[in-house]
Please model this.
Amino acid sequence: MDPILSIAGVSKTYDGGFRALEPVDLDIERGEIFALLGPNGAGKTTLISIVCGIVTPSSGTITVDGHDAIRDYRTARRRIGLVPQEVSVDAFTSVLASVRFSRRLFGKAPDDAYLEEVLRDLSLWDKRKSRIMELSGGMKRRVLIAKALSHEPDILFLDEPTAGVDVELRRDMWKLVHKLRAKGTTIILTTHYIEEAEEMADRVGVINKGRIIIVDEKAALMAKLGKREMTILLQEPMAAIPPALGEWDLTLDDDGKRLVYVFDAKAEHTGIPSLLRKLGDLGIGFNDLETSKSSLEDIFVDLVHEPQEQAA
Model:
């Protein structure tokens, strides 16, 4: 099956010479939830803005459900819903009127039953007659989502959708995203909240300094790059790691009461048996062992701090 969105060689250099986006090649599969992770200023919003026709690319092509996003802009754009970072809506318009207006902008026939369903999903139905200026910040963000969904898009972009919102709205957002995906909507979300990617995404891409570093299925990424830690609870605090333990990747924690060993669980030899034997040879006693695997956040931090030529 062809991807619903295909980005090929898309880059952006501004007039002043600033290179906001290196050439990006990325295919998004139909019906998937894709999370694009990156620190502030990494190029996430630039890439989304180009796909949505807000920013003109310096190079490359974009195909949206078989339609060229530049030559056949209107047809391609009708398939896309965008929830931007910034809350920018007509403050004096009612919620329902604002959502109806967004639907008309895309040439869709009136369908108040569908809009009611969207507003109910977002806990906005009771606020449908309220002017947007009367809503809280969280409710205004819900209105942005409703407007993006008003024309029944096949692809929904969520640009930092829960930045600055409360925990309740964040959880509601996650539920809504899963419900939309169940209906066949393709979701692309940019975030620097790692837990959002872990909660929702099928695949994860990491972008830094305008360059896509890696794209992979979430589980595969964690298996490929995730490290494991073994914490050894020592019987006696250790002032420093003995030179005889130098061949293992060890650190001291908790004022010398814990010896932490980082290892690759998929390696042929983890080094754990030899480490434990060496501790016995050195007369270093311990009371317990604990193991844990790294989170997606650990992987993300490692990736964005790698030299670009090594990470690419």
User: Anything to note?
Assistant: The two ends are 27 Å apart (CA to CA).
